[in-house]
Amino acid sequence: MKLLITGGAGFIGSAVIRHMLVETDSQILNLDKLTYAGNLESLALVSGNPRYHFVHGDICDRDKVSGLFAEFQPDVVMHLAAESHVDRSIEGPAEFIQTNIVGTSVLLEVARAYWNNLPAGRKANFRFHHISTDEVYGSLGADGLFTEETPYDPSSPYSASKASSDHLVRAWHRTYGFPVLVTNCSNNYGPYQFPEKLIPLMVLNALDGKPLPVYGNGQQIRDWLHVEDHARALCRVVIEGRVGGTYNIGGHNEKTNLEVIRSVCDILDELRPCHPDGIASYQDLITFVADRPGHDQRYAIDASRIQAELGWVPEETFESGLRKTVQWYLDNSFWCQHVQDGSYQRQRLGIIECP
């Protein structure tokens, strides 16, 4: 199987590539723009594999994308390229619209033209797998779970752009018969995650003795999914999933943001007990700050369809996965330093200035 993976140098994309190269005999072409969150060091362990190839490029570049389809002749597209941080989308929504909506439309049209010209056997087996988020569903109350039939109700420019791309993918299936798969996942965590995200940000700030910012009261609830469990799920979907189907992928781990931060602190107290000056526990660094605009209160995934149809269940508990994740950041300070050498220095993003 020949896979074209977009955004493969990102957090989830790199996990998918590492998994696919170990668990399958696939050939992989990674197309990535290498924005601030794309880092080829996340693929250092597989960069010498003869079945792996990297191309630097933008999914919005139709000529580039068309040339890659013609040259590589993929059997599967796994579309992970996206701008993905809610706070950044609040500050600058235009990039999210360009990459997540326009880029997806370009990719769909190039892929459809390529698919139309495939021989019958290869055409029947071709798949376009679009990887999305549970944030498209909006916010839950105290009860209930997101299912694949939950109406879309996005709250941020990021989630609105992903909702738009989901609708485009499904429209290409319904209008043109184009063979698509859509997955919507809960909050990912694990190794190689860019430190604008909650868990790596807390680990690195704590080690530096910096404040650990908690938005609002910290009672926002997320369902946490280890990125390697997610990669296993995506592999299962792209090989065995039902054409035109949607699969929600969750970790069965509902935690408040404050619970997550306190758990990170507890693990650091154990693994790195030499605290910065003036504190007895890393929890002393917890600092409550103004909430994010439009902050969804609760996400929770019903992942019963992927379990029933494809037999996937997460292997990591939150406790086991979080400990491994914290340990990884402690063991990989070199990677952490490199990815922070650019414009982002763990400052808060997404603050709306009043006129």
UniProtKB/TrEMBL annotation:
Its cofactor is NAD(+). Belongs to the NAD(P)-dependent epimerase/dehydratase family. dTDP-glucose dehydratase subfamily. PANTHER family: DTDP-D-GLUCOSE 4,6-DEHYDRATASE-RELATED (PTHR43000). This is dTDP-glucose 4,6-dehydratase. It catalyses: dTDP-alpha-D-glucose = dTDP-4-dehydro-6-deoxy-alpha-D-glucose + H2O. The keyword Lyase applies. GO terms for biological process: nucleotide-sugar metabolic process. The keyword rRNA-binding does not apply. Its EC number is 4.2.1.46. NCBIfam families: dTDP_gluc_dehyt. One of its GO terms (molecular function) is dTDP-glucose 4,6-dehydratase activity. The lineage of its organism: Bacteria, Pseudomonadati, Pseudomonadota, Gammaproteobacteria, Chromatiales. Keywords: Lyase, NAD. InterPro entries: dTDP_Gluc_deHydtase, NAD(P)-bd_dom, NAD(P)-bd_dom_sf. Residues 4-325 form the NAD(P)-binding domain.
